[in-house]
């Protein structure tokens, strides 16, 4: 008998289980999980099936995730259990060029005791836009006009019906006037070829320019650019606040912006400056620059806001260090002694950066629109055809 066999005899050995017991234990463990491994069909006759365990586990995971989000939310009572981080810092507005009229909310009771400006809200709308008008009225009344009670002037290229008028009056205690825009302020002027103008608008629609294919949009842009301030209902006012249907204000305005603008000697404000698409107004800068040159106007700082910054010129090598080539080579060298390329978009070396004011909620002095300078500027822009052939709005 070998050494290995002798040692194996001396070592204690565990009793081996019967084969039947092992298979029985294995069968029991399999049967415990067999229920969860059963596959169920998504539909009665569908060939796609998923394990029953996954179906039972998925809702549990969703509930756990919802509970975690609830606990971590800053407004949740359980938020103290899990810190949600520090609140974002408030970005200070630069006062390099100007400063805000007020920071935070003021005491409205004191503000309403002050003087009022000769001002009104101007709303351009149609009867079918009543729901959007109500939305705007509820918002501006809630956040501003319930305290200051400035009047409203509603304008329409048609007639307002009684339903529109009665409904509007139910949402404000301020004075309300309704007016109609006549043909001299709305539509195509007599000196324009209507078919040419309509074709220009159709081309903008074909080019997928936003609102470019809508005649009414072009009429609206022209009206707000050169006619609204001449309407008989607005002739008695000095200031206006443009109000559009379907807008919302999100903060209380606890001071009078008309009065603040007058005190600060402001003319135009409460707009945002965004970039326009170049294909919408390809020629507006040419005419604006021509008007500036024709009237010998000097910039007071705002003109540069609309100009592209010139590219930085590369430093020229010193003449002494240039490798001089024979004259016959220089004469035949491509690009030598040629006239520099002319930028077709530039006017007198200046190029429009496509920045423009979004005027949907602007506040402005009406005497500025009625000035001789602005009237001449609008007349030139109107005669340029930009209100039809492009999507010009000034």
Automatic annotation (TrEMBL):
The keyword Transferase applies. GO terms for molecular function: alpha-1,2-mannosyltransferase activity. GO terms for biological process: cell wall mannoprotein biosynthetic process; protein N-linked glycosylation. Keywords: Glycosyltransferase, Membrane, Transferase, Transmembrane, Transmembrane helix. Residues 308-344 are annotated as: Disordered. The chain crosses the membrane at residues 48-71. It comes from the Eukaryota. Belongs to the glycosyltransferase 15 family. This is Glycolipid 2-alpha-mannosyltransferase-domain-containing protein. It comes from Aspergillus novoparasiticus.
């Amino acid at each position: 008998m070998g050494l290995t066999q002798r040692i194996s005899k001396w070592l204690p050995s565990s009793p081996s289980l019967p084969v039947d017991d092992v298979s029985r234990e294995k069968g029991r463990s399999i049967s415990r999980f067999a229920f969860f491994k059963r596959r169920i069909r998504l539909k009665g006759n569908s060939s796609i099936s998923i394990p029953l365990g996954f179906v039972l586990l998925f809702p549990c995971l969703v509930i756990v995730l919802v509970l975690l989000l609830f606990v971590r939310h800053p407004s949740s009572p359980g938020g103290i259990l899990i810190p949600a981080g520090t609140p974002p810092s408030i970005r200070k507005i630069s006062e390099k060029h100007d400063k805000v009229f007020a920071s935070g909310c003021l005491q409205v009771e004191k503000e309403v005791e002050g003087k009022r400006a000769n001002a009104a809200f101007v709303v351009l709308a149609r009867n079918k836009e009543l729901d959007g008008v109500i939305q705007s009225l509820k918002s501006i009344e809630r956040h501003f006009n319930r305290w200051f009670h400035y009047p409203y002037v509603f304008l329409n290229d048609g007639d307002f019906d009684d339903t529109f008028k009665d409904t509007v009056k139910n949402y404000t205690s301020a004075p309300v006037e309704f007016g109609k825009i006549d043909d001299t302020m709305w539509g195509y002027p007599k000196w324009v070829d209507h078919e040419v103008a309509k074709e220009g608008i159709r081309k903008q629609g074909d080019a997928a320019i936003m609102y470019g294919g809508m005649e009414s949009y072009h009429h609206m842009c022209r009206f707000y650019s050169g006619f609204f301030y001449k309407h008989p209902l607005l002739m008695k006012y000095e200031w206006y606040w443009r109000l559009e249907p379907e807008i919302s204000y999100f903060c209380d305005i606890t001071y009078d912006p008309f009065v603040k603008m007058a005190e600060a000697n402001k003319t135009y404000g409460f707009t945002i400056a965004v970039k326009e698409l170049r294909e919408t107004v390809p020629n507006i800068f040419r005419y604006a620059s021509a008007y500036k040159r024709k009237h010998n106007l000097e910039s007071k700082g705002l003109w540069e806001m609309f100009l592209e910054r010139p590219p930085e010129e590369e430093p020229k090598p010193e003449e002494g260090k240039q490798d001089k080539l024979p004259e016959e080579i220089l004469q035949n060298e491509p690009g030598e002694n040629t006239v520099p390329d002319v930028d077709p978009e530039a006017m007198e070396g200046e190029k429009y950066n496509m920045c423009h004011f979004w005027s949907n909620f602007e506040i402005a002095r009406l005497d500025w629109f009625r000035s001789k300078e602005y009237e001449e500027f609008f007349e030139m822009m109107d005669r340029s055809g930009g209100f039809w052939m492009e999507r010009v709005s000034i």
